[in-house]
């Protein structure tokens, strides 16, 4: 992965906002992160790890260090990181959980942690990304997927914080396995191995299932064929071996032989059954023919008797048929006769209604048609009069409405006058209130100015609170740091004593070894061989070896203890220096005050803040009152103006309304024409129109009934002629009631149907061909058929039994063939799967090294990492050290992973455990290993791109020559496109590396940073 930018705010010692452009900073391939101890260099590493994983880099550090103690309460603690991986460009913005002051009231509240993750199209457009997640758990999983490492693996390969740099070098093989698997993406080989093992189990079960299926099919064949014991035993024995089931004596060969024999027996039985069935069919046909002839004789006798009865009723039938025909013709004409009678009655009713309506009309209307007899002419004359009245009545509707509204309009004029008088009084009252408001506003302004003067002191008092709180925290920390310094002083004294004792012990051991070296050399002399000291081949008086002579191993052990004691003293001295530096910084921050004095100063400033805050609150209230006062003044002025406008409008409207009322009253009076009101004149016209409408409707009804009466008479005349009647009376005489006609028609139909049925039956060829005398013996025919049927049934049952057995045997044989073929196929497919699974899981003799597939791949990758590390280690150690992979187990109970590591010391040509290296040696060996891991991972297509590497310790443990070699090796990384950030305060690094981030402590106790690229 590659870093683009990181912005942090209110984080650790950094109270402000700072942005680092890693793309510009790392242009040369290496940059320096430098500053005094405790200034905040490691905090930048923590910020990077926190942005990605929500926790700081070091496993021993607390996340509470993220919230800056120097930041303003309103400033949010946040890290905003833009980075790039193989899957794209991403931006993550993360805030930790911390206590912040409440927005209302006193005390603090927990600010919850948050995170937002975006995918970007370009690192230059961080605001235009696609939001992927805003949930802590979801974003954490997604970021780990994107980076490809968890936090522990990240700080072992990309970010190497203080105390964790040598973690990969000193890790157990099992721990290296998890890291390498994630870094190289080799989990797929573990999955392949597990999949092959599962496939081996699956094919094993499949082979066994197919073998059991063959056994079941063999048992099924035995049951279906019904074999004797000897045959069944032979078939079962053949089923035990499936090597050649089609050979002589094989399972399928025996099965096919039994199936063929059963099929031949079934064929012969079916031939016998078919012959018996044919004989039975002949006897059945003879029996059926005898029964049919007897039935025909009985039927002929019945038909002849029924025909004689019908012939005696022939004349009666003809009379009933004639009556039925006349009744049906009369039935067709009867509705026409009834219709004419109804039309004549309706005409009479309509004429009587018209005469009654005419008598009820006004004499003036009767006079209009007194000499007219034609209903059509009378109707048209009355219609003209009705239209005239309707038109006149419509012209008066508007005046009726005007007449009805005159009283209300007169009252409206009176009410408008009263309302105008009231509005004038209200306008005068409000005008007086408006005149008095400027004085009230001036009083509010004076009170507001006084409150603002007091409130202006709030900002300064608030800042003084923050300073006072900082002094109080510093005073409390001074107490703790003084105790820490005392402890550190004691630790330095103890470490110095131990180091002195170790130096003296190492010197004594070395002197003792030198004193007895002659005896050691003499012990290795051989007769005739030259002496290693003088070269003589004669050894007349070799020095004896002291039994308590010091061995080289004892010297090395004493030297190792001396180095360990010296390192312990250096660490204790560093801790004491840091404690002194921190105590001095916090004492300066406390400004010489103790805890009690700092607390008193804080209480005094808080009282000032409370007074200023109260004045601030009062200012808000007064400002709101001034605004409300001005708003009310504007509202009153607008209301006064609105009332003046309304009064002028009402005066004009009242004058116009009075003029219109006078004109409408004159028009209404003219329209009455002698009636008390226009409304009453309209009512009289409505009555005349209703009377005319009723008379006209009655005349129209008379006209309609006359037309209908003529139409019915014409229809009846044509109907009588069509159905053969001379007049209506003849039709009435022939008419029959419906029930009687129906019964008569049914009797005629029954007679005709019976006659036709009997005649047709006697005319059938089978009946006509019957002789008059015929004898048939059914008992003899039935007995012969029963004998033949019994024989056919027995033969068919035997044939069916043998055919069923042959069919079942054939099906069982086919099932057995399929089962054997399935077994062959599965067994053939299982062979390569089992072999591959045994190789991948380290089972069987083919895998001689007993390494699983996943372990084998990791071992090869690990060897590449070691080789890449050695390429740099040769230069950094001047050829002294070399890393080698070891096959040793960490413990008796652990698996051999092939991922153990040893260090070859070419000075002594011995293998050493990495944990025996000194601090400086551990540093540059670990650095080479980390760089080698990055080289190999970058070269792997399926691995993680480790484009950026941070180193946060160890350079101070190197001598100048080794430091130059290490820096030169780091400088070569730019050729591969990678960037290394070196975190150190070593002065030589400042002179060697131009691009840097400078971290400095401010007088307030907080820190700031400057990027020099």
Automatic annotation (TrEMBL):
Single GO BP term: double-strand break repair
Q: Which residues form a coiled coil?
A: 259-320
Keywords linked to the UniProt accession: Coiled coil
Q: Which Pfam families match?
A: AAA_23, SbcC_Walker_B
Sample GO molecular function, one term = ATP hydrolysis activity
Q: Which residues form the Rad50/SbcC-type AAA domain?
A: 6-187
Q: Which InterPro entries match?
A: P-loop_NTPase, Rad50/SbcC_AAA
The entry's family comment says: Belongs to the SMC family. SbcC subfamily.
Oligomeric form and interacting partners: Heterodimer of SbcC and SbcD.
PANTHER family per UniProt: ABC TRANSPORTER ABCH.3
State the protein's name. Nuclease SbcCD subunit C
């Amino acid at each position: 992965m590659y870093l683009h930018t990181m912005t942090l705010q209110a984080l650790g010692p950094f109270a402000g906002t700072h942005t680092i452009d890693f793309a510009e900073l790392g242009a040369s391939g290496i940059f320096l992160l430098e500053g005094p101890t405790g200034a905040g260099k490691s905090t930048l590493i923590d910020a990077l790890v926190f942005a990605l994983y929500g926790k700081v880099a070091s496993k021993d550090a607390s996340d509470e260090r993220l919230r800056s103690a120097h930041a303003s309460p309103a400033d949010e603690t946040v890290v905003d990181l833009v980075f790039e991986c193989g899957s794209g460009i991403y931006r993550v913005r993360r805030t930790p959980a911390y206590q912040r002051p409440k927005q209302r009231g006193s005390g603090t509240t927990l600010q919850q942690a948050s995170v937002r993750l975006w995918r970007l199209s370009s690192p230059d457009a961080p605001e235009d990304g696609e939001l992927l997640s805003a949930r802590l758990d979801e974003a954490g999983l997604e970021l780990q997927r994107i980076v490809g490492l968890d936090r522990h693996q990240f700080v072992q390969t990309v970010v190497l914080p203080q105390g964790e740099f040598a973690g990969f070098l000193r890790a157990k093989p099992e721990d290296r396995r998890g890291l390498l698997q994630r870094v190289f993406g080799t989990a797929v080989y573990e999955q392949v191995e597990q999949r092959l093992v599962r496939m081996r189990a699956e094919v094993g079960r499949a082979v066994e299932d197919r073998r059991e299926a063959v056994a079941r099919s063999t048992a099924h064949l035995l049951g279906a064929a019904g074999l004797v014991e000897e045959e069944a035993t032979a078939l079962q024995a053949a089923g035990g071996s499936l090597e050649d089931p089609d050979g002589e004596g094989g399972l399928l060969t025996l099965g096919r032989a039994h199936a063929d024999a059963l099929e031949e027996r079934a064929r012969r039985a079916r031939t016998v059954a078919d012959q018996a069935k044919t004989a039975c069919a002949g006897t059945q046909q003879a029996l059926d023919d005898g029964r049919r002839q007897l039935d025909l004789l009985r039927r002929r006798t019945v038909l002849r008797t029924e025909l004689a009865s019908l012939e005696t009723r022939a004349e009666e039938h003809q009379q009933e048929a004639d009556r039925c025909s006349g009744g049906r013709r009369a039935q067709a004409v009867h509705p026409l006769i009834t219709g004419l009678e109804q039309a004549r009655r309706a005409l009479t009713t309509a004429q009587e209604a018209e005469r009654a309506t005419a008598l009820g009309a006004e004499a003036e209307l009767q006079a209009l048609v007194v000499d007219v007899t034609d209903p059509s002419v009378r109707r048209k004359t009355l219609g003209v009069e009705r239209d005239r009245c309707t038109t006149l009545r419509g012209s008066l509707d508007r005046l009726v409405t005007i007449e009805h509204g005159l009283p209300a309009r007169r009252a409206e004029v009176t009410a408008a006058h009263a309302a105008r008088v009231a509005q004038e009084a209200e306008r005068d009252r409000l005008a007086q209130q408006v005149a008095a408001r400027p004085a009230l506003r001036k009083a509010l302004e004076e009170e507001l100015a006084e409150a603002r003067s007091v409130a202006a002191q709030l900002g300064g008092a608030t800042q003084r609170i923050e300073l006072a709180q900082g002094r109080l925290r510093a005073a409390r920390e001074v107490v703790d740091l003084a105790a820490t310094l005392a402890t550190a002083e004691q630790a330095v004294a103890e470490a110095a004593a131990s180091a002195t004792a170790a130096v003296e012990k190492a010197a004594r051991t070395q002197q003792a070894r030198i004193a007895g070296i002659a005896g050691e050399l003499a012990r290795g002399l051989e007769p005739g061989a030259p002496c290693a000291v003088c070269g003589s081949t004669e050894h007349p008086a070799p020095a004896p070896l002291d039994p308590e002579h010091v061995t080289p191993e004892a010297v090395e052990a004493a030297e190792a203890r001396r180095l360990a004691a010296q390192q312990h003293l250096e660490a204790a001295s560093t801790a004491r220096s840091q404690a002194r530096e921190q105590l001095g910084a916090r004492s300066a921050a406390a400004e010489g005050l103790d805890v009690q004095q700092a607390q008193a100063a804080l209480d005094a400033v808080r009282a000032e803040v409370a007074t200023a805050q109260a004045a601030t609150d009062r200012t808000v209230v007064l400002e709101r009152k001034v605004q409300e006062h001005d708003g009310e003044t504007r509202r009153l002025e607008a209301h006064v103006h609105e009332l003046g406008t309304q009064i002028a409008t009402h005066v004009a409207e009242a004058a116009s309304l009075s003029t219109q009322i006078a004109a409408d009253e004159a028009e209404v009076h003219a329209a009455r024409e002698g009636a008390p009101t226009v409304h009453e004149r309209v009512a009289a016209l409505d009555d005349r129109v209703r009377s005319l409408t009723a008379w006209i409707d009655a005349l129209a009804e008379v006209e309609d009934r006359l037309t209908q009466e003529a139409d019915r008479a014409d229809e009846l005349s044509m109907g009588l002629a069509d159905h053969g009647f001379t007049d209506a009376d003849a039709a009435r005489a022939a008419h029959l009631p419906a029930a009687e006609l129906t019964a008569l028609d049914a009797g005629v139909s029954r007679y005709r149907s019976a006659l036709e049925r009997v005649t047709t039956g006697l005319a059938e060829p089978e009946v006509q061909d019957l002789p008059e005398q015929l004898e048939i013996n059914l008992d003899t025919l039935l007995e012969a058929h029963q004998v033949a049927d019994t024989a056919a049934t027995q033969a068919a049952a035997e044939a069916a039994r043998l055919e069923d057995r042959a069919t079942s045997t054939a099906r069982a044989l086919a099932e057995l063939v399929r089962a054997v073929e399935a077994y062959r196929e599965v067994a053939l497919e299982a062979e390569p799967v089992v072999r591959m699974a045994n190789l991948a899981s380290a089972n069987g003799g083919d895998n001689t090294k007993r390494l699983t597939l996943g372990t084998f791949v990791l071992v090869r990758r690990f060897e590449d990492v070691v080789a890449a590390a050695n390429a740099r280690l040769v230069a950094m150690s001047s050829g002294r050290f070399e890393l080698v992979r070891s096959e040793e187990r960490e413990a008796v109970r652990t698996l051999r992973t092939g991922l153990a590591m040893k260090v070859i010391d070419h000075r002594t040509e011995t293998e050493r455990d990495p944990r025996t290296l000194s601090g400086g040696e551990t540093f540059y060996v670990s650095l080479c290993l980390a760089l080698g891991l990055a080289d190999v991972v970058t070269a792997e297509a399926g691995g993680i791109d480790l484009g950026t590497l941070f180193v946060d310790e160890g350079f101070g443990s190197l001598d100048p020559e080794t430091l130059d070699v290490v820096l030169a090796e780091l400088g070569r990384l730019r050729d591969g496109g990678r960037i290394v950030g070196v975190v150190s305060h070593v002065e030589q690094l400042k002179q060697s590396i131009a691009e840097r981030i400078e971290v400095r402590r401010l007088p307030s106790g907080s820190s700031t940073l400057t990027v020099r690229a």
